[in-house]
Amino acid sequence: MLRGMSVLSVSGAGTIAAAGRGMGPARGTVLLVDDDQAVARAYERILKKAGYSVDVSHDAQEAVALFGQRRFDVVVSDVRMPGMSGLDLLRAIRQRDLDVPVIIMTGSPDVQTASEAIEFGAFRYLVKPINLGQFLVLVARAQRLHEMARVRREAVAEYGPDGRYLGDKAGIEAPFANALTKLWMAYQPIVSWSQRSLFAYEALVRTGEPLLSNPAALFDAAERLGRLTDLGQAIRRHVANTMSHADLATPIFVNVHPADLQDESLFAPEAPLSAFASRVVLEITERASLDQVTDLMPRLARLRSMGYRIALDDLGAGYAGLASFAQLEPEIVKVDMSIVRGIDVSVTKQKLLGSIVSVCRDLEIHLVAEGIETVGERDTLAALGADLCQGYLFARPGKPFVVPKFDHSIPTVAPTIDTTAA
Questions:
Q1: How far apart are CA 230 and CA 209, in angstroms?
Q2: CATH assignment, 6-159
């Protein structure tokens, strides 16, 4: 979505000739929406004289239909119209297209409409009367930026999702709704390396919605839309459904956002996952601080009384530090992959992990090392006393239930461990 939206109040008798200097040929397509037919005809003449192809609609509902039938480079709309307003139109457009610039015009500006226009990604919020020269300059600029955004999005689609942006709030509502519909859970094994045995599975959220295929993007969208609770409930329903159909006694780790801890449905005896509480480890994923959770300790006590165990995720990254360790008093700690990755060649990481292993051993807390990809990392972790392992070396996440691989027959040199690490 195009950023940099501002409120602009312009007036005067700017000329089309002045506006055209330095613009080059336009020949773009503009959707013009205004219920005042005389005003719409005036803007239509101006835009056509500047070289634009213009579709005019006097009704926002009709404009939505037109937008679905052809591609427009720029949309220009009045705010106040009978029935569907210009802001409603902006919202509907964002559900179809994250990039097209929408210029909003009004003769009765107020803070509410201006803030909503900003929230839903308007390119400009213009206050009438509008200088015609400035207007055409803005339309030309919007068209060019739209083309740049389109090229960028096509490049992202071609070369992969890294760096994909979500656009404005309205633009992610439809993808998020579709993501919930296409939600599914992948499962990755957690193993005991010394026993060569399965310890548990972690349930990892996935979706068939391409814009939100990255779990981090999915959670970011849920947070921006205020729908973290909906996402958490959907995840728990999917896991419970899998557990109800699987002949499996192995524990399942389920990620829980701090916001979920304030959702009373998590504590409800009739909730789908509650029936399996004794086999579930709630993995607190700290995308936000636990300080936002009111009555944290009583809530954790309620969950434990139901049979759940608590794990602290990503120790060593983000918010997940010693304070969280003390707040949660977890039964299980998962060490972040930033510590695990390359630990076989980093004395500093070895010392750090050795200290964590020692504390966990003293407190009788299970420790799981995440993100193990190499035999060298595996062997170094084992030498430091970190027996529970998770990572691509053993299995990638997949449909229930992936069988872990223990035969890593790759020639390796025995790890060198600093004896002061533990």
A1: 16
A2: 3.40.50.2300
- What CA–CA distance (Å, rounded) separates 221 from 212? 8
Longest dimension (CA), the chain: 84
The domain spans of the chain are 6-159, 170-389
- Tokens 């107020």 -> residue: 110
User: How many CA atoms, within 13 angstroms, populate the side-chain half-sphere of residue 352?
Assistant: 19
Helix (H, G, I), strand (E, B) or coil at 125: strand
Domain 170-389 sits in CATH at 3.20.20.450
Q: Which is it for strands 74-78 and 29-33: parallel, antiparallel or unpaired?
A: parallel
Q: Count Cβ atoms within 10 A of the Cβ of residue 317 and give its class: 0-12 exposed, 13-18 middle, 19 or more buried.
A: middle
Which amino acid, one-letter code, is at 227?
R
The one-letter amino acid at 314: D
Of 348, 367, 369, nearest in space to 359 by CA: 367
| This prediction's pTM | 0.62
**Mind listing the pLDDT tens digit for each residue in 346-400?**
998 999 899 889 989 988 999 999 999 999 999 999 999 999 999 999 999 999 9
Return the DSSP state at 398. Answer: B
With 0-12 / 13-18 / 19 or more C-beta atoms within 10 angstroms meaning exposed / middle / buried, residue 11 is: exposed
Q: Which amino acid is at 4?
A: G
Backbone angles phi, psi at 297, to 5 degrees: -65, -45
For residue 138, pLDDT over 50 is answered with: yes
Q: Which ranges of 182-252 would DSSP assign to H, the alpha helix? A: 215-225, 228-245
